[in-house]
Give the backbone structure.
Amino acid sequence: MTDGTLIVAGAALGLGAGVSGAALPRRFRVTAAATLVWGACALEAAAAVHVLATGHPIVLRSAELLPFTGVDLVLNPLGALFVLLVAIVAVPATLHGIGYAQHGSATRSATCVFPIFVTTLLLVPSAGSVATFMVLWELMALTSLVLVLVDHGRSQAAQSAAAWYAVFTQGGAALILVGLLVLAAHANGQSFAAIAHHARHLAPAVRGLVFVVVLVGFGSKAGVVPFHVWLPKAHPEAPSPVSALMSGAMVALGVYGIVLVGDDLLGGGPVWWWLVVLGLGGASALFGSLHAASSTDLKRLLAYSTTDNIGLALLALGASGLFEATRHPLLASLGLVAALVLVLNHAAFKGALFLSAGSVQVATGTRDLDQLGGLLRRMPQTGALFLVAAAAITALPPLNGFIGEWLLFQALLHGAASGNTASDIAVPLAVAAMALTAGLTVVAFVKAVGIGFLGRPRSEAADGAVEVPITMRLAVGLLVGACIVLGVIPTLVFPAVERAVKTALPGVGTALLAHGVDVQLVGLRGVLAPATLAGTMTVAVLVVLMLRRVLAHQPAPRVVEAWGCGRQLQTARMQYTATSFAEPVQRVFDDVLRPVQDLDVSHVAESRYYIEAATFHNAVDDGIERGLYRPVIGAVRRWGQAARALQPGSVHRYLGYGLGALVLMLAALAMIA
Amino acid sequence: MPKMSLVNWRARRVTESPAAKPTSPNGPAELVGSVQLRHVDAGSCNGCELEIVSAFGPVYDAERFGARLVASPRHADAILVTGPVTRNMAVPLLKTLEATPEPRVVIAVGDCARNCGVFRGGYGVVGAVGEVVPVDVSIPGCPPDPTAIIEALRSVTRR
């Protein structure tokens, strides 16, 4: 079988999965579709691995498939890395979906659309021309939109989330289309190869404009501040396998788009482009982590954390571009390696976190942290997996989050004196933003684990939670396994990442040298030995445990109630809640978060000294949504209201309009003639 | 006499000079030298509390003998109970005892703690401390003098 056949066969299997999801009887359709999706993932991943191993792109063309333009597929190493990323998330997400489907959301439309969504995700990185790219991109947007709406019957919020998502994804796609069409018009051809060939000779102003327009378009897909508003709405409302795919894979394709256009097609640009990217990245990282730290809805927390992680990836991307513009090819290469590794790692742990949030939702029926608690004892395996994934996202060694952030820190710290003033000011600021983000991420995930899984259950639903089916645990386990493998033996993927980097930035050298399982930075001081680190940590823990057993002779522990100041009734309400845990952070960042707090006290009629009832309301809504988008929506609505005066429902008035228009037109024609 | 340092040559030491070491030791040998105390007011008139505060003040300074007040029974070796045990405080007293790690000592401070004092037979009174939890040391007096409290604490710390 040739390499091209792999891609075509994968796509065919994916579409077949969609058809079988729609056509087969209810009993088989979920498993049949899932099996075919796995086949599609396996074939596309095999093609991607082949490309990454050999470095030769796969090129396919079919003139008949799409009218006027034809379909061009070019799978180069950069795209292949993202295909692999999508497959890593899609396989467990589909597995999780089998168990998830038993709890509703196995409608015919969902089972039909989900495989098509996965297939488009797999194919977008191999698009080789503007038309193919836009068709696949739009298919991906539309299918994900349908999947956000799967639960529309159950929740009003899903409809509103889908409306927000539709506006952002379509607006973004329009901007991407405009940018790519400008490039295609100048290149006299719409294939990416032709565009890359001609884009270097464009006027700098045109190149800058195209880059900014496309950056906004892809940024809205990647959930970059201030275009992130749809993320915390759509991710919670979508079924969890879909949120895992949207957050782990689809958002990553936004980053792919920026690399594709910025580095591959336009071939890099001046310093100011990358300062914009760096600024957007820093703002996203800080804003996302801050909101994650103060969210009480588990999936909303994860959605904001996606904005935070994509922000870090953009920091790496911006730094890489800056270093390339200031002629530091090694650092540029290191920065891009960091960006790609960050995105890859994010796919693994965020996929695991979203899928376990889905398991929690299946087991308890809620994702409000203030209603959860005590789940580690009731769902020990899901809880342990969530804990490991949370440790990975907070960048604790020996897990994969640490590797990505270490690379980014190395790139930024070594690049602090690049010789360009703007860059020399921006890079240390980026280091500071990254450090604060890392701290806030720890707060967010200590809260998610501590409030959600430890302590006592805060509701009957959490009290009655039972462990989810084995398929769902296995799905999360696969992704957590990926987190551990990528953290302990990152040298497995580094050669592939290097190949992808060389596709995007052909001029740069190799940034990393692998010595067995250790990694050394080329030309810079910095060595990372994750396997040694993991081994040492394991040995240290074992030694401490053994010493404890050997040295300390302890009497049998006496199990008593937790100390509650001697109160006679201890209830779950006396514990920390997610809201109270986040309160100090919320107070410190009051000016940014601007929480809305209301205290209503009603007094007893006889005396103001006695209180009859008190209600306290605390909400942290998105400041950017409130300040930037709500006024626009309000203005549009007012215009709409004003326009209603033209439409009073009177037939006479409408006839008058027709007459007036006719007279005006005749007058205009007479004048022209 | 210790050598006078430059810092305190103007200040006169006001602490009572310690009496002789206690002769009749109380409590387990593990606690010798240092005892952390959690105070429980089981229904006291606050007379005993004033005397306890005084015992830990600069004049009597019980801390030089290794006794120290702490904020949680989880940190404590002994609990210091004052007052007759009232209905509302019986369960909290038991819970405090349960929360104190072993080996531990229960010290009943004042006449009310020993035998309910003037509150004996009151409608809100369950009984003396000894009727609710096992008492190891009791200090008589209404209220007991700080020296009496110090003496009892020293019998536990043995310093």
